[in-house]
Design goal:
heterotrimer; A alpha/beta (395); B mainly alpha (272); C mainly alpha (298); A: 395 residues; alpha/beta; D-Maltodextrin-Binding Protein, domain 2; 3 domains; 7-stranded mixed β-sheet; 5-stranded mixed β-sheet; 14 strands; 44% helix; globular; B: 272 residues; mainly alpha; MetI-like fold; 11 helices
Chain lengths: 395, 272, 298
């Protein structure tokens, strides 16, 4: 073997090794291309991102009605900052055909050109939605254009143990003192670990006339400071056992006996009831937290070849089967409850399920008539809310 | 490394001294292993959230592959793919650098350059990647940035694995091989590689595991990529039915990682 | 190591490859980390930046509650690191100098390696089931009559965060100590004993000075990664124990990149300081002992 010959394979080996090691830098451009390619449509499949409560346990009805497959990715949409980050920094629109948010959150996204304008003529169920819902201030940006469809809405409160606390059951009304300001629940209460906790504080202060707050769901920097001060005072008094961040934590707090009363989502109470616990979701005399879930098409999806399929899927969410299913599963009010009731009757559902659907039609006329506060997801001064929330969590 | 001494030096430990030392270790090891054992036990519990292991059930394991629940398969594939890529590239780079370290003039500086990141808090690396590449340069984060974050995490460990065998390696063997007429390639393949193999294998295993189980760096550098640890982390904010995933799947991953680490350790500590 | 071998560090291609990787590493990895310091002094605008000097990021960070969070983090990390040192010192010394090589020693060492490669998130949540109001500890306390009422400070408290940190960071402290104890020549210990020193005197005048590099490394390897721990406070703090990691999360979600960079810079500075101190300690030792590799090859 000559020196010349043995030099060659060695060189090749070294070069290969260098290439492998340098993959980080060398492969970057092709990998970036790769991720952009992934952004293209997946015909026959709808990729949707949304709050965990949007999802049905089983999408077979969706698949049967639309002929499409549903690929649902859940995201804690209450955490507005995280959601914006996901859309702006992580380009969620490239990976999803539909993005569900708390209604109101989409408005700044519209301003930043992240949302595709809706062609509502392609949605046959859209026209029948009540104008009060369609033009609700949390949904409507006031520009005579439609950007998001309302999926469902609810009047939120808190879950509690009526027996253990010696309290009445709904529909008899309670008030928010039980959660925020009560000797019996001291150290046995839990509340949201996101901005909604501050908004609740603002609502409470406004309702009790303890502070001047114009809109607790959209406070100014000084208003949110007042609300945070109050919540910090309650936290320091030992009112809260913990702050939750996830749905599972809500469940665990009930199941593990950590709380007697907990600000939570209505589905969590349904879930825990199903595990044999005596929990109720409060009806309140002072106020409820009204919210709506909206779904929009990301601007990146507007140019996709499966846009027709996206509209078909979106229209399905406004149809009867979703409204009826969701009313039973979560206790939420769909934006076309009329279609929901029609569907449930036509499908021959048992009486108790039909009652659950009807209960949501009644709810619109009862709970929603309370002095209510609508939360629109993103307050204008999100930074102030985030900073005050960090202060509250630190306290 | 020094050969183990035949007998421990007498007198440093009294009987009570041993008891005290063992008690300290046992206490810390319980704090370390109790949650791991608990996780595995609770994955067989009918009500994992309550923390009571009975009644026992394998329901969660069977439901892992049913319908919607089987969606962890895609993140698993992503994690395995990135794991392999990180494992091979980190090991190749570590081999290249590690062999040069004992010969390099400034081995201290070279080592410090590569090993300093080992102590950086994980989220700091993730944040640095996000802010520098996404914020400052404007490149979208994604597959490549997850790979980079994991590579940064794995390379120092890979390098340590290689260094352990490299410093044990007697370079006179190479001289002898040359005197016997072996070429550079033959010397590498027939003499050096077999002796470095335990370190290389250990490095492959460890790099894979570090990447596979990585979370804090991935949280910020991930772009749209969903790795298995990230999927499990967010699954907890989803339906309660996902509880099965968190406990059962984590238990499976933990046991598998345990076995893989054992295998790698055996390779690395095998007597030469 | 002879000068001749230094010349043999590989072919030109190999040298070039090492050089390329090192340059890429410095530019692609170390530069982004150091650039945080620069970014912390400019202004953010959405995802991008405005290139103008600004101390707004530090004004965002250096507010009372964030300082409180930083101080709390430092306090908890210092306390847990100290606990680790107190637990790991006797244990590592026993492992290195009191336990004969055998299956027990190998098993213990393996048990100390494995956790490095396990995901901390899933297992940490198990503590909730142990420490909760109706968790195993409280069931035990109630049944034995020690405390009929559930003890609430066990969970969602600084106690649970401390407890959750001790386990995972124990191996980081044991390893450097174990290695440095193992490197101490038994003859030195024997000689000290032969000269009539008792165990404590030997420990103080022979073992501790010789193990100083290991102790310094152990403190660095344990404390610094712990500064960024986001698992224990998230899962066991329950919103009652805010640490730095949570602040990073807040700032990144709000896309306040300069703010996050400013906080990170403070952390990096703290780390550099720790390194310098550790280096000073090491330098004193290395002056008489030679490089670490000479030691390993001896």
């Amino acid at each position: 073997m000559t020196d010349h010959k043995k030099g060659r394979p060695l060189r090749r080996r070294s070069v290969l090794k260098a290439l492998a090691a340098g993959t980080a830098a060398l492969a970057a451009p092709s990998l970036i291309h790769h991720s952009i390619r992934r952004a293209h449509a997946a015909p026959g499949t709808i990729r949707m991102m949304g709050g965990p409560t949007v999802a049905l346990k089983d999408w077979s009805q969706f698949e049967k009605d639309t002929g499409l497959k549903m690929e649902f990715t859940s995201f804690n949409v209450d955490d507005v900052g995280a959601l914006y980050n996901e859309i702006l920094a992580n380009d969620a629109g490239e990976r999803f055909d539909l993005i569900n948010t708390l209604a109101g959150v989409q408005k700044p996204m519209v301003k930043q050109g992240q949302v595709a304008q809706l062609d509502t003529s392609r949605l046959k169920n859209y026209a029948g939605i009540a104008d009060s819902v369609k033009r609700s201030p949390v949904l409507y940006a006031g520009d005579d254009k439609d950007w998001a469809v309302p999926l469902y809405y609810n009047a939120d409160s808190f879950g509690y143990y009526p027996e253990k606390l010696g309290l009445a059951r709904p529909p008899e009304a309670l008030n928010w003192d039980i959660l925020l300001n009560n000797e019996k629940t001291l150290g046995k209460a839990s509340i949201d670990g996101d901005n909604i906790a501050l908004m609740i504080g603002g609502m409470y202060l406004k309702d009790r006339k303890l502070a001047e707050i114009a809109d607790p769901a959209n406070m100014t920097a000084s208003e949110v400071k007042t609300a945070a001060d109050y919540m910090i005072e309650r936290k320091k008094a030992g009112q809260f056992r913990n702050l939750w961040k996830t749905y599972d934590e809500q469940i665990a707090n009930f199941v593990n006996g950590e709380v007697l009363v907990q600000r939570c989502w209505e589905p969590a109470v349904k879930d825990v009831k199903g595990r044999g616990q005596d929990v109720e979701y409060a009806t309140c005399s002072d106020f409820h937290i009204n919210w709506m879930h909206a779904t929009s098409i990301p601007v990146q999806a507007a140019a996709r070849e499966n846009l027709e399929e996206i509209y078909r899927a979106l229209d399905w969410f406004l149809g009867g089967s979703y409204a009826a299913e969701l009313a039973v599963l979560r206790g939420y009010t769909g934006s076309r409850m009329d279609l929901g009731l029609e569907y449930a009757k036509a499908a021959g559902w048992p009486a108790d399920k039909i009652a659950a659907v009807e209960a949501n039609i009644t709810k619109v006329k009862t709970k929603f008539l309370n002095p209510n506060f609508w939360i629109g997801g993103a307050p204008d001064d999100l930074a102030a809310h985030d900073a005050e929330m960090a202060r509250f969590r630190n306290a | 490394m020094r050969k183990p001494n035949s007998l421990p030096p007498a007198g440093l430990f009294t009987r009570n001294g041993v008891r005290f030392a063992v008690a300290c270790g046992v206490f810390a090891m319980i704090l370390l292993y109790l949650p791991i054992v608990g996780l595995i036990l609770l994955s067989f519990s009918a009500q994992p959230l309550t923390g009571i292991p009975w009644p026992l059930t394998v329901e969660w394991y069977t439901s892992l592959v049913e319908g919607e629940n089987a969606r962890w398969l895609k993140p698993l594939a992503t994690s395995v793919g990135i794991g392999f890529l990180v494992s091979f590239s980190a090991t190749a780079a570590a081999l290249l650098i590690g062999r040069a370290v004992p010969l390099a003039r400034r081995s201290g500086g070279l080592l410090a350059t590569y090993l300093s990141v080992i102590v950086m808090p994980g989220i700091l690396i993730g944040i640095a990647i996000l802010i520098f590449y996404r914020g400052l340069i404007g490149i979208r984060t994604g597959f490549w940035s997850v790979f980079l974050a994991h590579f940064i995490w794995a390379l120092p460990f890979a390098l340590l694995c290689i260094l352990i065998v490299v410093v044990r390696f007697d370079r006179r063997l190479l001289d002898a091989a040359r005197d016997l007429g072996a070429g550079r390639l033959r010397r590498f393949l027939d003499v050096e590689l077999p002796l470095l193999m335990p370190g290389i294998s250990a490095s492959l295993f460890f790099s894979f595991l570090l990447s596979f189980n990585e979370l804090p760096r991935t949280l910020y550098a991930r772009g749209g990529i969903i790795t298995l640890p990230y999927y499990l982390w967010t699954a907890s904010s989803s339906h309660s039915t996902q509880v099965s995933l968190i406990y059962a799947l984590s238990a499976v991953i933990t046991v598998a990682s345990f076995l893989l680490t054992l295998a790698a350790m055996r390779l690395l500590t095998r007597k030469d | 190591m002879s000068a001749m071998r230094k010349g043999q560090a590989g072919t030109g291609v190999e040298q070039a490859a090492i050089g390329t990787i090192t340059v890429l590493w410095v530019l692609g990895v170390l530069l982004p980390i150091l650039s945080l310091l620069v970014i912390s002094f400019i202004q953010g605008k959405g995802l991008g930046f405005v290139w103008a000097f600004s101390t707004k990021a530090y004004a965002d960070i250096l507010v009372d509650f964030r300082i409180e969070i930083v101080l709390r983090t430092l306090r908890i990390v210092a306390a847990v690191t100290l606990i680790e040192l107190l637990l790991a010192f006797p244990f590592a010394l026993w492992l290195a100098k009191g336990l004969k090589p055998g299956w027990l020693k190998s098993t213990l060492l393996i048990l100390l390696v494995v956790p490095f490669f396990l995901s901390p998130a899933a297992r940490t949540i198990v503590w909730r089931s142990i420490l909760g109001s109706e968790g195993l500890v409280n069931i035990f306390l109630a049944q034995t009559g020690i405390s009929p009422e559930p003890v609430s400070w066990l969970l969602f408290s600084e106690f649970s965060v401390h407890l959750g940190l001790i386990g995972p960071y124990f191996p980081s402290m044991v390893w450097p100590l174990f290695i440095s104890f193992s490197l101490i020549d038994d003859e030195l210990i024997k000689a000290s004993r032969d000269l009539g020193a008792d165990a404590f005197t030997t420990l103080r005048h022979v073992v501790v000075p010789l193990a100083l590099p290991g102790i310094a490394a152990g403190l660095v390897f344990t404390a610094i990664p712990m500064l960024g721990d986001n698992v224990a406070s998230t899962l066991l703090g329950g919103g009652n124990v805010a640490l730095i990691a949570e602040s990073f999360d807040d700032l990144i979600r709000a896309m306040n990149y300069p703010g996050a960079a400013a906080l990170a810079s403070l952390l990096v500075l703290a780390m550099l300081l720790a390194f310098l101190v550790a280096r000073l300690v090491l330098a004193r030792r290395q002056a008489s002992e030679g490089g670490i590799f000479a030691e390993m090859q001896a």
